[in-house]
Amino acid sequence: VVAAALAVGGLFARLWTDAKVSTVGEAPFDNPLVIPPVAESTVEKDGTRVFELRMQAGETEFRDGVKTPTWGFNGSYLGPTLRAQRGEKVRVRVANGLEEASSVHWHGMHLPARMDGGPHQMIAPGATWTPHWTVDQPAATLWYHPHPHGRTEAHVRRGLAGLFLLDDEKSARLPLPKRYGVDDLPVVVQDVRFDGSQLAGDRGLMQNVGFLGDRTMVNGTLRPYRQVHDELIRLRLLNASTARTYAFGFPDDRGFSLVGTDGGLSARPAVMDRVQLSPGERAEIVVRVEAGERVMLRSFPQDNYGDAWQRRFGGGDDSFDVLELRAAERLRPSPGLPAELVEPEVPREEEAVRGRHFDLKRSGINGRAMDMGRIDETVTRGTTEVWTIRNTNGMPHNFHVHDVQFRVVEVNGAAPPPALRGPKDTVFVPHGTTMKLALRFTGPADPDTPYMYHCHLLYHEDEGMMGQFVVVEKGQPAGKPPGHSGHT
Ligand code: C2O
Ligand code: CU
């Protein structure tokens, strides 16, 4: 009894000390920000753009003189930025150079289920998987990461993630900052904790939302700064953390313009001073800098994170300095932002032919833990549906759907705030939230190969907060998913 009491006491003591983390003002931001290289590609005779990705183990020097074992794509940590045009055929040769099986999922991409890279498209050690598809969606900031069932958290946290940017004619014509690494910066945010030379994060540390780090990195750089030479800077923010939700803004509360959400550009720039991103979500923001100033991108404590207990133990009270922008003494003038951007390609609620309900619980969705051999939902190709997502579970979750970009129709019965008005594939659903989404499934039909929907807090996903849906032709029955591990 005494030992148990001590163990429990120790646990709470640790949670308590871990409860409020702040790196605000802690150290000079003097490491130059790493910009992930744009992936090289070759173009075949029929116009197919071909990329090569290799998952591999390596060592990364995050801190001077300390080598940390990590995983990466084509390098030791994170991966190159893939980039393609709407209408282009792409093929990716994904080699697994690890000693365990994994997969690579194209988060936010509309593509056939067999190419999706979920837990049914595993790549054995030493094997290569070569998905191919035609890019058929608007310009957007997408990303890629492993998705092996039960192991996604570990694979992503060790460093397997990268951006996949899509361009189209409309985005090319708009006067938005678009010089990659110059006035259009990739900002892949992760929280980490070091245990000596190792990245911490064993399962014993997981509580509540999952693993929370005590400092952040951008593109794998600790305490990063970036010199900028333009008045307007576009930041493509990706929350690539496995559990932590951020609320980004600037210490002087300056307004910035949100110009894009997960799946593409917004209808028009929306000025705000905070943007909240849960794991997997993206936002494109444009911020104005003054000549010679240093301005910190910061993550602030969050009100909208459930009750006080949830905020505290889910990391919602934490604050981080994330990335310092150092503006040059002379800045190039930037054109003003256009009043209108693009009409987002998201379905309308009025088109919906049916509704479904998803109840989020730590133990599973709609009372069931993930089973790779079970199809949970069957949707008809070419139809729009309204999905109602509800969290009364007492802890924060989010909700991600593969293959589609949806419209957020309602949050707790009200119109969505500006940050949720563009194309979305992942939404934060804190305790006490009911959210209505409109989703359109355009296929192709494949009754045997499921797509996933799940909580993108990866520990929750691994532990079963995931379900499977197939897209079928009208009247066609769902098939039986192959590859259920172990039996059949
Ligand atoms: Cu980013 Cu199913 O995942
Ligand atoms: Cu969750």
UniProtKB/TrEMBL annotation:
Keyword line: Metal-binding, Oxidoreductase
Top-level lineage group: Bacteria
Gene3D superfamilies assigned: Cupredoxins - blue copper proteins
All residue ranges annotated as the Plastocyanin-like domain in the record: 56-170, 361-473
SUPFAM superfamilies in the cross-refs: Cupredoxins
Record InterPro entries: Cu-oxidase-like_N, Cu-oxidase_C, Cu-oxidase_fam, Cu_oxidase_Cu_BS, Cupredoxin
One of the Pfam families matching this protein, by short name: Cu-oxidase_3
Family listed: Belongs to the multicopper oxidase family.
Protein's UniProt name: Copper oxidase
